[in-house]
Amino acid sequence: MTRFAVLKPSVPQDSAPAPVADYGLPDVLEPYLESLQILDRLHRLMLDLIKDEFERLRLADLTPVQALLLYNLGAAEVSAGELRSRGMYQGSNVSYNLKKLAQMGYVHHQRCDMDRRSVRIRLTPQGEEIRDTVGRMFARHADGLQASGVLDDPPIRLVNLQWRRVERFWADQIRYIY
């Protein structure tokens, strides 16, 4: 993900605060940018949590990104292109990670019968074990968050609804460019 600009420039103690550009949206822009920064940090923290879990289990051959890719593949059989278009993978090096995962025995890949240029990918039993490990970790985290009340105010379902709306807005912006 991309780093975002600092929301408020630092102001020397002896000078008046510089006006923050609000682009006509003073009540919306700052919280929107803060949300983007939080999302970026959450994604990085999630990868750190996966890394720590795998270190604890002495599973050192996978990167957190590769483990998340295996988790997101689930029981599906997809092409490399579908991984990105379905939002299962957020990196630019899909081919590299799939090649490494195949070499390590976590995914099985096979040329598609209809289009020989396309490769279909699915988890091997070893990949399914990793998927289940990440799933159990996420379940533990969800249980802890629920027990602490963090997901209650506002309810996580409403937060997710809001993010799906933002996602749809962004997707529409991309579509209308072309």
From TrEMBL:
Gene Ontology annotations of biological process type: response to stress
GO molecular function, one term: DNA binding
InterPro entries noted in UniProt: HTH_MarR-typ, MarR/SlyA-like, Tscrpt_reg_MarR-type_CS, WH-like_DNA-bd_sf, WH_DNA-bd_sf
Keyword set, alphabetical order: DNA-binding, Transcription, Transcription regulation
Cleaved signal peptide residues: none
Keyword Hydrolase: no
Domain of life: Bacteria
Start and end residues of each HTH marR-type domain: 32-168
Descriptive protein name: DNA-binding transcriptional regulator, MarR family
Annotated source species: Paracoccus alkenifer
